[in-house]
Design brief:
The complex is a heterodimer of chains A (about 350) and B (about 130).
Chain A lengths: L5 H6 L3 E5 L2 E6 L3 H10 L2 E4 L4 E6 L3 H8 L12 E7 L5 E11 L3 E6 L4 H10 L6 E4 L4 E7 L3 H9 L11 E6 L3 E6 L8 E7 L3 H10 L3 E3 L1 H11 L33 H10 L3 E8 L10 E4 L2 E12 L4 E9 L7 E6 L2 E8 L11
Helix pairs in contact in A: 2-7
Chain B lengths: L7 E2 L4 E6 L2 E6 L1 H7 L2 E6 L5 E2 L4 E7 L3 E5 L4 E6 L9 H4 L8 E5 L11 H11 L2
Antiparallel strand pairs in B: 1-2, 2-3, 3-9, 4-6, 5-8, 6-7, 8-9
Classes of the chains: A alpha+beta (about 350), B alpha+beta (about 130).
Chain lengths: ~350, ~130
């Protein structure tokens, strides 16, 4: 599958890769350059492969409250929240953001590209009422403008002052040149910035405008290293249907005070019995690159496994997310087994670099 | 993409510069561009033996891990340890300062198994498809 920006990526000489069936740019000039451009100036990402599922009816709130882990009822117009679809065992079917478009009636779920069809089926199979579920992904494009210069770029390209738009809030803005835009103060990089949803036919013009004014085109490679520096989990790597939000350290996006949601019973039970393992971070103390699947050792005992790893372009050090036995504490030293060599690492709760997000 | 005419090439994208019975080895412009930002290298020690097509080290970019394969059989007589501190040199100077090892070759007839630059260029363009 291709996003509406496919030809633009090719024209920019992007190195393209297959990402869950999508032909996506992994980098244009290089992951490090794009990573640092996002940290220091402004990066532009094509995230049109992400899914947008609209949920609408007078029963949307009760339906979504059963399906998602947060309280939908309390959401106000223009608010965004991070949440999960869980299975009955508390495992994460997907992590997503929910957008309150019309309180009590219309909500948009922004879901992972690789999980979109699965999510839609899951939602549909539990929808016994009159709620309308609509997959608008095929017509919707999404750009992420991320980096400290985001607001001046928005001002210059859209003649819009968005500095007052709070974190996890969105607004809808109609433009003569780019149609209707849903602009959200969110992102997956740890850099400040916005994510913008629009109709497919406007994506290329808006992309070109941002690039013309100085945004650096960034591929999925730097998106991955940026999110890893912040310790944001990637579904399919760090979280999946066998992992609960508690094990992944994502308790903040679960509201156990709700009467019911799918997976709640399992989470309540886990809260009482405790966890055997939890997701945490590792910083390498010597040269080397931790990768998914590498084992973590404490003396001769296996204590965990790495789910995401790379080099932090900011720290120039190996960093990783891993599941470690709950007995291993922050600040402890462990070894990572990299091709028969033991490399020393320190257990560190992410983020590995300081975020730059201002409210 | 640059493939100097005075070098020999392997199908695993290493280059070999032959000087008497010594062969200097590195990775090609195509290999470095496919890997992207190189962040780590590791070579077998000086004095160890390698076989043609046998592994003599590892190179890692932000995204990928790739083994390095010896173009000829012999003994590693020099290792460019400077690359351990500046692996990014492989991206910018792959045929120059980013040479990796020197092998003292056992059997010069093995060179016949390598490609010249023209053949390698064709090989790369067929692989890129």
């Amino acid at each position: 599958m291709r996003t509406p920006l496919f030809n633009t990526h090719v024209r920019l000489n992007a190195k393209m890769v297959d990402f869950h069936g999508w032909d996506m740019p992994v980098w244009y000039t290089g992951i490090k350059v794009e990573h640092l451009a996002t940290r220091n100036a402004c990066g532009l990402f094509d995230t049109s492969h992400m899914g947008e599922i609209y949920v609408s009816s007078g029963e949307s709130v009760s339906f979504l409250n059963r399906m998602l882990t947060i309280d939908i009822h309390s959401m106000k117009q223009g608010q965004v929240k991070y949440t999960f679809l869980l299975n009955s065992g508390g495992g994460i079917i997907d992590d997503l953001t929910v957008y309150c478009i019309r309180p009590g009636y219309t909500y948009m779920l922004c879901v992972n590209a690789s999980n979109k069809d699965k999510d839609f089926k899951w939602l549909t199979s539990h929808n016994k009422g009159s709620t309308i579920l609509e997959d608008k992904s095929p017509n919707t494009s999404m750009l992420a403008l991320q980096g400290p210069n985001w607001a001046s770029l928005i001002k210059e390209c859209l003649d819009l002052n968005l500095e007052d738009l709070k974190r996890f809030k969105f607004m809808v803005h109609s433009t003569p040149s780019f149609g209707d835009l849903l602009i959200s103060r969110t992102g997956y990089t740890g850099a400040d910035g916005v994510e913008i949803f629009m109709n497919n036919e406007n994506a290329e013009a808006l992309w070109n405008k941002f690039v013309e004014k100085g945004a650096t085109p960034c591929g999925l490679g730097s998106r991955d290293t940026l999110r890893l520096e912040m310790g944001y989990p990637l579904h399919g790597n760090d979280i999946d249907e066998h992992i609960t939000p508690f094990e992944a350290g994502l308790r903040f996006a679960v509201d156990l005070n709700k009467d019911f949601f799918i997976g709640k019973d399992a989470l309540v039970k886990q809260k009482a019995t405790g966890m055997k393992k939890r997701l945490t971070g590792l910083e390498l103390m010597e040269k080397g690159v931790p990768r998914q699947g590498h084992l973590c050792l404490k003396e001769d005992k296996e204590v965990g496994i790495i789910t995401s790893g790379s080099i932090s372009p900011v720290l120039n050090k190996g960093i990783a997310l891993c599941y470690l036995d709950s007995s291993i504490k922050e600040g402890e030293h462990i070894d990572i087994l990299v091709r028969n060599k033991r490399l020393k690492a320190i257990v560190k709760r992410p983020p590995f670099v300081k975020g730059q997000i201002h409210n | 993409m640059n493939f100097p005419a005075n070098l020999k090439y392997t199908k695993n994208h290493e280059w070999a510069r032959v000087n008497g019975n010594k062969v200097t080895v590195g990775i090609t412009d195509y290999a470095q561009s496919e890997l992207g930002d190189i962040v780590y290298v590791e070579f077998n020690d000086k004095g160890t033996d390698v076989k043609q097509d046998g592994i003599f080290g590892t190179v890692e970019s932000v995204k990928a891990v790739s083994e390095l394969y010896a173009p000829v059989t012999g003994t590693i007589v020099e290792v460019n340890n400077a690359l351990e501190d500046t692996p990014e040199l492989i991206n910018t100077d792959c045929y120059g300062n980013a040479w990796m090892i020197v092998i003292e070759m056992k059997d010069t007839s093995e060179l016949d198994n390598l490609m010249d630059s023209k053949k390698y260029e064709d090989y790369v363009s067929s692989e890129a498809k």
